[in-house]
Each structure stands twice: as C-alpha cells, then as structure tokens.
Amino acid sequence: MIGRLNHVGVAVPSIEDAKQTYRDLYGVPESAITETKELPPAGVKFAFVNVDNSQIELIEPLGENSPIVNFLQKNPKGGQHHVCFEVADIYAARDEMVAKGATVLNEPRIGAHGTPIIFIHPKNSNGVLIELMETPKAAHG
Ligand code: CO
C-alpha cells in the first residue's frame, strides 16, 4: 500500500517565475523554497516549495528531449503534472505494479529526493501520472 503523499509535481515554463508566485501570491518565505537544481537523467530542473504538510515540486524542461516538453506544449502556462506517494521498497512496489498489470514507465532511478522512483502511467489511475518514491531513510526530520 502507498504511504505518505510526498509531493505534487507541477510543470512550469520557468521555475524562477513560479517561485515568485509562491512567494508573492501565497506568502511562502524564501527559506521554504529550495535552490533550483538539475536532474539530467530525468531531463528536468527542479525546486521544492515546502509547505506545512507537503511539498510542491516545480519542474522545468532541461534540454530539448525533456519528457515534459510535450506537456508544456499542451499546457503553456504550466500545470499539475504528477502526484508522488512514498513506498517502503521501490523494487517490491515495481514488482507489485507489474503483477497487477499496471504500466510502469521506467526502471527505478534516483529522483529529486535522492531515493529511487518509478512512474505509473496515467491510464492506470484516472488520468493521473503517479510517482512512487522510496521513503528517504532519515525521513521527515
Ligand atoms: Co516528483
């Protein structure tokens, strides 16, 4: 069974502009917004906006072959892209998803939190792209 909701992924044309929106419109302090980093294997830049009980993951394309380029062509202002739940063991979760007939979109790879992740096709979950991420060992401290 899935665990804690870790974050909601939002694809944006500009992470810096999106950070400004969370600061100016929603009052999130600068200290709650992480630096923008690159995750080349995933083809994205990312930053987190930390709120009391969760995170918004802002993702911006990195390179022409970024997997979120098409999403942003359909949603030029950005949009809600995925929802991420934690699991105890990513390989066990992958095997269970496959056994249940779900379409797992990638082999486990290291994600933005430094723990392995997989994505489950939106067709399996009412149109929502689901990310499963192994819970960080020193979680939620
Ligand atoms: Co994510």
Concise structural overview:
The chain is α+β, with helices and mostly antiparallel strands and 141 residues long. It has helices spanning 15-24, 69-74, 90-99; strands spanning 5-11, 37-39, 44-50, 55-61, 79-87, 109-110, 116-120, 130-134.
Radius of gyration computed on alpha carbons = 15 Å
Please estimate the helix content.
Answer: 10-25%
> Main β-sheet: number of strands, strand sense, barrel status?
8 strands, mixed
Number of alpha- plus pi-helical segments: 3
User: What is the top-level CATH class?
Assistant: Alpha Beta
The assembly state of the depicted protein chains is single chain
- Compute the separation of the termini in Å: 22 Å
The order of strands across the largest sheet is: 2-3-4-1-5-8-7-6
Number of domains: 1
Bound molecules: cobalt (II) ion
CA-based shape: globular
CATH superfamily: 2,3-Dihydroxybiphenyl 1,2-Dioxygenase, domain 1
- Report the strand count: 8
The CATH architecture category equals Roll
What is the strand and helix layout of this fold?
Elements: E1 5-11, H1 15-24, E2 37-39, E3 44-50, E4 55-61, H2 69-74, E5 79-87, H3 90-99, E6 109-110, E7 116-120, E8 130-134
Parallel strand pairs: 1-4, 5-8
Antiparallel strand pairs: 1-5, 2-3, 3-4, 6-7, 7-8
Describe the overall structure:
The protein has 141 residues and is an alpha+beta fold. The protein has one domain: 2,3-Dihydroxybiphenyl 1,2-Dioxygenase, domain 1 (Roll), CATH 3.10.180.10. Helix content is 18%, strand content 32%. It has three helices and eight strands; from the N terminus they run βαβββαβαβββ. The chain has helices at residues 15-24, 69-74, 90-99, and strands spanning 5-11, 37-39, 44-50, 55-61, 79-87, 109-110, 116-120, 130-134. It has an eight-stranded mixed sheet. The chain is globular and about 45 Å long. The relative contact order is 0.19. The structure holds cobalt (II) ion. The site of cobalt (II) ion has 6 residues, from strand 1 and strand 5.
